[in-house]
Amino acid sequence: MPYPKTVGVLALQGDSSNHLAVLAELGVEGVAVRTPGDLGKVDALVLPGGESTAISLLLASSGLLGPLRSRLAAGMPALGTCAGMILLAREVVDGRADQVHLDALDVVVRRNAFGRQVDSFEADLRVRGIDGAPLHAVFIRAPIVESAGEEVEVLASLPGTDGVERPVVCSEGPVIAAAFHPELTGDARLHRLFLERAAG
Predict the structure, then answer these.
(1) Residue 19 annotated in active site
(2) Has residue 1 been placed in a domain?
(3) Which residue out of 82, 170, 172, 191 is catalytically annotated?
(4) Measured CA distances, 34 to 12, 40, 155 (Å)
């Protein structure tokens, strides 16, 4: 089944260029999305890492917030990584009062769950739906899923700072969210999984 024809990458703040490079590697036309007009041109969207509160403010000031909520509610496929996971969540623990929740994934997410920038780390994950070697994952001020709704499929988990295993990759319908940065490792398998599910 063919991939979505055009995939946008939210390019208001954060690491959009590496996601666009991965999409190009997979033979998909990538579009940097900064305006509602850009959003209207894409069939699916990647929400990259960055600073979730800054992206929240920029979504509002750019006029993208309403159209993006509408597209997600209508079933547009989306991949959220790190800050993108926070944005897609139903609820954010320890978020700011003006934190945007796009409510595209029925999860409660905790920001900076593994600590500050100096506590960034890497880990090898077995991700359901991805065959072969474990996926090498880079966690930078990463969130974690505190709880997930009944319709959410947990694709990978990792122990938190308290030692309790919690989800770090989840999906619900056409939406996938990961707590790490898959665009930084040279491994396109998570993006490929997203594109395959988006095409389904």
Answers:
(1) no
(2) no
(3) 82
(4) 6, 11, 30
Catalytic residue among 19, 172, 181, 191: 181
pLDDT digits (tens, 9 = 90+) for 169-192: 999 999 999 999 999 999 999 999
Active site residue 82: yes
Does pTM top 0.85 for this prediction? yes
Of 19, 170, 172, 183, which residue is the catalytic one?
183
pLDDT tens digit sequence for 119-164: 578 999 999 999 999 999 999 888 999 999 999 999 999 887 778 8
CA proximity to 170, closest of 151, 156, 149, 180: 156
* Tokens read off for 26: 């997979």
Torsion from C-alpha of 66, 67, 71, 73, nearest 10 degrees: 10
Q: Is residue 128 part of a domain?
A: yes
**Residue given tokens 């990961």 in the structure block:** 178
CATH classification at residue 35: 3.40.50.880
Query: In angstroms, how far is CA 194 from the centroid of its own chain?
Result: 10
- Condensed to tens digits (0 to 9), the pLDDT of residues 11-60 reads 999 889 999 999 999 999 999 999 999 999 999 999 999 988 899 999 99
Q: Which domain holds residue 168?
A: 6-199
Reply yes or no on whether 101 is catalytic.
Answer: no
Domain count, the chain: 1
Sign of CA dihedral 119, 125, 129, 131: positive
